[in-house]
Amino acid sequence: MSIDPPSQPDSDVYKTLLESTKAIPWRIDWQTMTFSYIGPQIETLLGWTPQSWVSVDDWVERMHPDDREYVVNFCVSQSRAGVDHEADYRALTVNGDYVWIRDVVHVVRKDGEVEALIGFMFDISERKKTEEHLIRLQKQLEEYSFQDGLTGIANRRMFDTVLEREWTSAQRSQLPLSLIILDIDFFKQYNDHYGHIKGDECLRQVASTLSQAANRPRDFIARIGGEEFVWLLPETDAASAKLVAQRCLHLVRQRQIEHGSSPVSKWLSVSLGVGTHTVTPDSPMLGFVEQVDKLLYQAKRNGRMRAEFAAIEV
Q1: Domain count across the chain
Q2: Which domain holds residue 278?
């Protein structure tokens, strides 16, 4: 049984159907690399008349420069291989703006050779806006997941990530790594006396104050617990770490946050444990943190409002 080609009236019906959709049909002759057809919807979308789409050069020139090389190389290679494909890119409008386009391409072959490319262009601008919005939201969520919601500085999760990275770096460089663990003295009594709203404000003030003690871009501060903060100081020896700790103590005292329930001072005070270690391949990271934590509690036992220092071997 043979199938006769569609009559002229049928072709007119197909053309009407194609040109009544939002998808923009087109056809390119492979040998001449010229458009044998492009739907009139192209003018509504981009402003360019169908008659202005003569060769693939027009298609290439009306593509965003940042998308051009990849999209052209991809489409040409896929077409030569006879593989149907899709490509997303930004197309230039007659007014100089850009619209996100998705080209869906079907490769027509005859006697084993590529004869033509036929396809549809789709306006995917709204979809791209949605995707970009979702990407921004995802990035925001990732940032929030590494940020302490109360103080705005890094949280425990971020500290764990940065510590692991800097520990590995210290193993390679064999340069000392210093850590400061800082705790607000008698913070429970502060909350009991002034209330949790004032307590939250106090934590924000301490975080802001401590941030001023940063010396270098890689110095890292985080809130890792209720009233506990950490300073991670890469490539920092014991003497330099001691200076940072003393600066922290000075800045907190200078802030003069009233603490009427503190047995050691009428102003809010902090205690610090400060440790420095030259990391070796066998050094236990958590062991180092635990030793610095012990120094913090030693500072508390010795009267608070002070720092305890040590070069740590673990």
Answers
A1: 2
A2: 146-311
> Does residue 293 lie within any of the structural domains?
yes
- Work out the average pLDDT over 184-209: 95
> Residue 87 corresponds to which tokens in the numbers above?
């490509």
- 193: which strand partners? none
> For the whole model, what pTM was predicted?
0.60
Domain of 113, CATH number, reads: 3.30.450.20
Extract the tokens encoding 141. Answer: 């969520």
In whole numbers, what is the pLDDT of the chain averaged over residues?
Answer: 90
Residues 161 and 305 in one domain: yes
Catalytic residue (choose from 61, 115, 132, 227): 227
Strand order across the 85-92 sheet: 34-38, 24-29, 113-123, 98-110, 85-92
Closest CA to 202 of 267, 283, 250: 267
First-to-last alpha carbon distance for the chain, in angstroms, is 87
241: amino acid identity, one letter: A
Q: Which residues of 144-180 are buried (b: 16+ CB within 10 A; e: fewer)?
A: eebbbeebebbbeebbeebbeebbeebbeeeebbbbb
Confidence of residue 18 (pLDDT cuts 50, 70, 90): low
Assigned domain for 138 exists = no
What length does the chain have? 314
115 flagged as catalytic: no
Burial of 114 (0-12, 13-18, 19+ CB in 10 A): middle
Backbone angles phi, psi at 55, to 5 degrees: -130, 175
